Amino acid sequence: MTLSTPPTSTPAGAHAIVYGGSMAGLMAAGVLSRHFERVTLVERDRFPNGPMPRKGVPQAQHVHGLLTRGMDILAGIFPGIREDLESAGAEFLDVVETTAMFGAGSWRPRFHSGVSAASVSRLVLEWVVRQRLQALANVRILDGREAMGLKTSGDRTRVTGLQLQVPGGGQEETLEAELVVDTSGRGSRTPQWLEALGYPRVEETRIHVDVGYASRTYRKPSGFEPGWRSLALSPQLPRERRIGILQDIEDNRWLVLVGGWLGDSLSTADDVAFLEFARGLPQPHLYEAIKNAEPLGPIHLYRFPHSQRRHYERMSRFPEGLAVVGDAFCSFNPIYGQGMSTGAMQAEALGECLHQGVRGASERYRRRAGEILEGPWALATTGDLGFPEVQGKRPPGFGLMSWYGNRFQQLAGYDEEAMRTFARVQHMIESPTAMFSPRMVFKVLTVRPDKAAQTPGPLPLAVLRARATG
Description:
globular, single chain, 470 residues, 19 strands
């Protein structure tokens, strides 16, 4: 493990508290270690001593993707962490060149795009990051403690600490701090705590998607060389609802996910049902890859009822000394893979806001976080709101945006420039506005769906085997 210490900054204060040991919490604590003399990370769970699941992260055994922008920020927080991940078995692969992608009714062209991402499980990723955080001399990890409420100044205009308790009851304790950061996830109680302190209830936007998925780990078969490292089979929205992903992870394993929108997902962890669901995907490649592969564990189920955005940036009053980061601020449909990376962007923004000192940082940060979330939220919700059954307010011009998005996806089925642009937007290297440059608009308006259908995809495993034996 790399033991280098991050570059130091002028301390903004003596003590900061982060409560919630999620990826957003780990990154936020790493950022704050540069701005405070001491940082305490509080987590309700007991952290396992290794890359193992824990109760507070039920989705950890499913497919995850730290996007390129998120990885760049993480590497800035913990220099050398790419090498640490590689030592733990991760690989950094070109997302277009090494992934066989089927979407919008056609295969995507594969070429060297220059957009790379870590091929690694969430369990290993989080473990490596947690080790780096534990190595920082000014960071204390206090697990097995539950946040019970905020401590404030007498006039309740400033948060001054956090009240803690051992889960299930026990002696309470209070930690004093100049900044308290909520990274406790979508179940955050900050809205209720603020309301109890006399602040208005934060406005929420919810998009009810009823997404469900099931994941299982397999041993990669010896000699399996299909010409791709990972596989992504996406539906043609809104006509289709099912998705399948095969992710190449450490230790010569596959992590396989099958799922869908609006309840079209597995309800039981049944071996036969898992394979039959995979057989029903838009292409046979995933099913054929796993039907004779060796499972390495049980099937894990997960349900996600709705995307949720809390508009802290709109609140007319908000206390000093408090910041909200990650899913506690905005929880995305996980199928789009934006959560960890937007959490990284928020943690980075919080650090930037602290360059001017603690005073006013909460105000600066929540408005900046609201701006950061606009693009990713628009991308995710445009896809989800394309289903007529999905509840949620459609923004002005939604029909035109959906039409353009569908045409752009068709264009990406054969045009390398469009595919590279899409990959860069998807991985948050560029703003979604890159899809609306004059050159891209002209291409979208003259798109040829028949040409996308001609893009060759990888041969199904059955054909490869027939050729090998023939």
